[in-house]
Amino acid sequence: MKIKTALLAAMLLCTFIACDHEGKKTSSRQVYNLNEPPPKTDESQLIPAPPPPQQEANQKQTTTVVSDEAVVAPEDHGKNEVIDQKALYDSEGYDVIVENKFLAATQNPLSTFSIDVDEAAYSNVRRFLQNGSLPPAGAVRIEEMINYFDYSYTRPENKEPFAVNSEMSDCPWNPQHKLVHIGLQGKEIPMENLPASNMVFLIDVSGSMGEPNKLPLVQASMKLLTDQLRQDDKVAIVVYAGNAGLVLPSTNGGNKKAIREAIDNLQSGGSTAGGEGIKLAYKTAREHFIKGGNNRIILATDGDFNVGVSSEDELVRLIEEERKSGVFLSVLGYGMGNYQDSKMQQLADKGNGNHSYIDNINEARKVLVNEFGSTLFTIAKDVKIQIEFNPAKVQAYRLIGYENRMLAAEDFNDDLKDAGELGSGHTVTALYEIIPVGVKDNFTVSVDPLKYQANEKKSTGNSKEMLTIKLRYKEPEGSISKLIVHPVMDDHKSLAATSDNFRFSAAVAEFGLLLRSSAFIQQGNYEQVLNLARSAKGIDANGYRAEFISLVQTGTLLAKK
Known about the structure:
Elements: H1 2-17, H2 56-60, E1 71-72, E2 82-83, H3 85-90, E3 103-104, E4 110-114, H4 120-130, H5 142-146, E5 162-171, E6 174-186, E7 197-204, H6 215-226, E8 234-240, E9 244-252, H7 256-264, H8 274-287, E10 294-301, H9 312-322, E11 328-334, H10 341-350, E12 355-358, H11 361-370, H12 372-376, E13 378-389, E14 394-400, E15 420-423, E16 427-436, E17 465-474, E18 482-489, H13 500-515, H14 526-535, H15 544-560
Parallel strand pairs: 7-8, 7-10, 10-11, 11-12
Antiparallel strand pairs: 1-2, 3-14, 4-13, 5-6, 6-16, 8-9, 13-15, 13-17, 14-16, 17-18
Helix pairs in contact: 6-7, 6-11, 8-9, 9-10, 13-14, 14-15
């Protein structure tokens, strides 16, 4: 009798959930309808609150995030249909990351890569950890985790768009090695001086977006961005499901009511013709192009394109062709279960933009409000870094992260080679682990001396230079690159004497190595990460570093299971 009563209650609950207050049946599969707006989203409800300890067991039975256990999906509405967690994980798309190896400075004196200002990996890793799972290795892009945080770098004093900062000390996870910290600080343009914007919100309204952490969160995010618009800005909204459509023509940024109403009127349903949406968005942006302004498409999606131009190669070729118009592309990723991380990373990279993962409304506020200028306003494009190592000082080196941003040495001087973009006030950080000359090298394998090359090490006299940093960049509308050169001296400094910038970035890097089960973690451990991060927390006005410390504690517990 109790079982029948429970089943009856579950059926009644499902009926109540499936109907609105007038008794009309609703569905997350409905196509957007501008004449019948859905109920407005309460943005405060999109901020996930951690469950009290006594509710933790029940919470694990209602989440769809990957864990070691099978769980019941929210959309089951009481059917008790259990989701296979491996299948759920397998439907998310991540690139395989082959870690950079140690390279001998005598045979590989140059290391060349494109900057990366994406932050998606950190918030995605956070999503896994906060929901009780270690992330897949392909989700842990260490450079994006490092670049998620703000650093107090020296600001540019001349007309150059950024300043170069460097610091070197002992490597925390192997004190016999050195760690070189390279930081770029972009020039910050005051909000009132930012150029006028011509934006197109390109929003995925397909059936796969009909979950609370997808389209409703997209709508809340876009309304936050709308609040930042000025009178000189203009916005159009393009949506795509089975096909693409213009739901809001280019509208003055001062008309926030019209923009917000168009956002509120979106509903999800149908397949995903992402390629058609991208074409229409670029066409719309070109028609309202602002010379000298910020012309940008903001794509909000889970990346699950499945109609028309949908493969990664096809989409990349489409974006590479469209970017010639001078329109930039930023990508905001949403959701879980079928989140296509690798596809969205490729689109942002080839579209001269950036990639962020929005897992809650606080992250949307960070990306679109707190970092409005750095996310959406480019001050330098095709920014490349090339390091030349002094073989008299450096036996071998390894770049930590940036695996999918590596360039050939000759690409550095090739102005046709695409690279990363730097936004207003943005910081970019890179770390090299170095094996000094005279220290035992357990990572590189020697080769036979070359017959036709000079085998002796080139003399550098009494030079204290450890390495030289060279950077190339273009103005946002330029085609000819400019060069900046910055030497790094062999100045010994103890780890305890380093800046908060150095120690905190090292802590984030070490945490990433641990999450990846890296072959290069050496003596690294979670306790050391915690100690480093705590010692370098600093002012932490936004609480991002405190949150990182909490994530490390969570990761420590999960790693012990």
